[in-house]
Amino acid sequence: MSINILTQPAPSADMRMAYGDGEHHFGELRLPGGGAPHPIVIVIHGGYWRAQYGFDYMGHVCESLREAGLATWNIEYRRIGHDGGGYPGTLLDVARAADHVRALSPHYDLDLTRVVTLGHSAGGHLACWLAGRHRIMQSDPLHDKDPLPITGVVSLAGVLDLRRGWQMRLSNNVIESLLGGAPADVPTRYDAASPYELLPLGVPQVLIQGTADANVPFEISQRYYDAARAKGDRAELIALDGAGHFEVVDPQTREWQVILDATKRMAQRE
Fold first, then answer.
1. Are strands 26-30 and 71-75 parallel, antiparallel or unpaired?
2. Residue 110 near residue 40 (C-beta atoms within 8 A)
3. In sequence order, which ranges of the chain are alpha helices (DSSP H)?
4. pLDDT tens by residue, 176-197
5. Nearest alpha carbon to residue 196 among 152, 135, 120, 143
């Protein structure tokens, strides 16, 4: 596995900026040279939504995307263990960080007609959730009347079905910690927070995962893909034979070119 990517320093971003007032309300922007206005990729790290895992390792992904001509907004957010983390703070932070792209756009020549979300593991969940939050019921605390439109999604080993993840007791039953209860206890939270429940998203999606992933079972992506296609979404599932959980976020692996090509395709959609 490429787990060493978690401890290798990434090249510096162009700038770090706040999207809110809290300690964890910030992101890092990287801009490519030329070709403006730039497609923008909102990059969301994983770590099973827990406080001990931060966004630094996704800087390698961002640097590779920048070299390919894509702007990136690598976001941080409150997680389980932080004051206000978990439900609803984690999701509201990610939504606020994404919507902040509107404020960044005129200053950094970002193309709001080409906004891609890319997330790894728990970040894959959040990347798909951002694309589907326009479908959340108006009465729900997670509802936003005017979310930033997402034009494409790349999920890297995403936890895309929270009810199934809860059934599998992923990572010591972390989903119950995230949402504050089991599906029977807080069903509306699962309805509004799980991309699987929000289908169809109405947005093109590429789901990429290694078949030997020991952290997030491949079944999660397969099950989500089947449901997305059945409900009419333009979804693609790419299985990386023999790959684990971290090859998909390490630009030094042979698998990385698949992720890079898929992200560029999503960003180029008309």
1. antiparallel
2. yes
3. 59-67, 89-99, 101-108, 122-132, 162-167, 170-179, 187-193, 195-198, 218-230, 256-268
4. 999 999 999 999 999 999 999 9
5. 135
Tokens at 191, concatenated: 């309805």
Q: Token pair 């951002």 is at which residue? A: 130
- pLDDT value of residue 4: 80
pLDDT averaged over every residue in the chain = 96
Q: Is the pLDDT of residue 1 over 50?
A: no
Task: Please report, for residues 22, 68, 87, 88, 125, the alpha-carbon distance to residue 83 in angstroms, rounded to integers and kept in the order given.
Answer: 10, 37, 11, 12, 21
In degrees rounded to 5, what are phi and psi of residue 76? -110, 160
What is the percentage of the chain residues whose pLDDT exceeds 70?
99
d(CA 264, CA 105): 19
| Total Cβ atoms within 10 A of residue 203 | 23
User: How many other β-carbons are positioned within 10 Å of the β-carbon of residue 154?
Assistant: 31
Alpha carbons 203 and 25: distance in angstroms, whole number? 26
Supply angle C-alpha 142, 144, 147, rounded to 5.
Answer: 125
Separation CA 249–CA 180 (nearest Å) = 29
Higher per-residue pLDDT: 52 or 269 = 52
At 269, the pLDDT band (50, 70, 90 cuts) reads: low
Q: How far apart are CA 51 and CA 119, in angstroms?
A: 17
Distance between first and last Cα of the chain: 36
What is the CB neighbour count within 10 angstroms for residue 263? 26
Asked if residues 233 and 200 have their Cβ atoms less than 8 Å apart, the reply is yes
Q: What is the DSSP letter of 211?
A: T
Residue 36: band (very low, low, confident or very high) from pLDDT cuts 50, 70, 90:
confident
